[in-house]
Amino acid sequence: xxxTETKEVPIEKLSPEQLQYVGQQLEGEIxxxxxxxxxxxxxxxxxxxxxxxxxxxxKCKDKEILVPLTSSVYLPGKCSNVKTVTVDVGATYFIxxxxxxxxxxxxxxxxxxxxxxxxxxxxxxxxxSYMNIVNHHLAVVQTK
Length: 144
Hints:
Layout (H helix, E strand, L loop, with lengths): L15 H43 L5 E5 L5 E5 L5 E7 L2 E6 H45 L1
Antiparallel strand pairs: 1-2, 3-4
Helix pairs in contact: 1-2
């Protein structure tokens, strides 16, 4: 047998210790996937917020605004005719883009993140189902 090949064993043939081990592995995988899902969701929300900011900028000609310096420090400012924005494209790289290109960039990022979230969600559901099966068999074995 090749090292990369795995051998399937019917769950009914596993001992309680083996079932517990499989359950612990599944629990670890479910926790890791849940964390990844949460991080992707947060990133998606940030891109959605950024898109709203770009929309607001396109409507704020000659209006008084508060410019955020940090999450809690703002300075008064005035919107001029905003045609471009500077976008953080990752790894501390910033690119100046038109408002439409920035919205398009954010939409692509949101779509990509949603696709990844959907994949993780599907995997989470599968792993959770496996976990429920393992827990059921463990309960059956322990009541014997």
